[in-house]
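step: validate -> pass
step: tokenize input -> pass
step: predict -> running
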Amino acid sequence: MEKKRTEARSAPAPSRDRGRATRRRLIEAAARLCSERPGAEVSVAEIADAAGAFPNQVTYYFGSKDSLLVHAAFLALLHDARRVERIGRQAADAAAFRRNIARAVLAMPSLPSVARALAGGISKPELAPVVDRHLQLLFRQSERFVGQIIDSRGWQTRRPLSVETRTFWSTALGAVLLVRAGAHGTVADLDLAGALTIHDQPEHG
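step: predict -> pass
step: emit ->
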């Protein structure tokens, strides 16, 4: 592992590129470890070791372990969201699209980690800007996907796309936060499909 660290640090690339590569490895390592051990504590030393980096590089590049875990949680969420998009594209009609998307999102393994990231953004103000940047990226990616699919299928929404995607994700993430806070029930009790207004365009005859 020491050799791996040395090679990573001495790679013949500009300093800025090396820094970006180290950041990326740390985020990916944290996301992988959190996915492999859901709910378990992951130490800075473990993340650094898995990334071929040094523990103090976590603080150098992210400011804190909590900030790194926020980045890792949303990286996993964006990966899951791409799989959800593939499921959505297979829907035969708008009703099936709403059902399939809702079911797939509630089953995403990254949701608990993102819920912890959101809770961290509430309890630790220094994390709020990091959480917000990732949420805005999620909203933009989702808005782009929904816009593409309704245009290609001739579907419609009953509200602007930006409102549609924000309402959907706010409902999904809010449900996970409530369950995590001890609210009675599970996310399975949520009618997440009802948060989408996508519908088939009526035919004119």
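step: describe -> The chain has two domains: 1-63, 64-205.
step: cleanup -> pass
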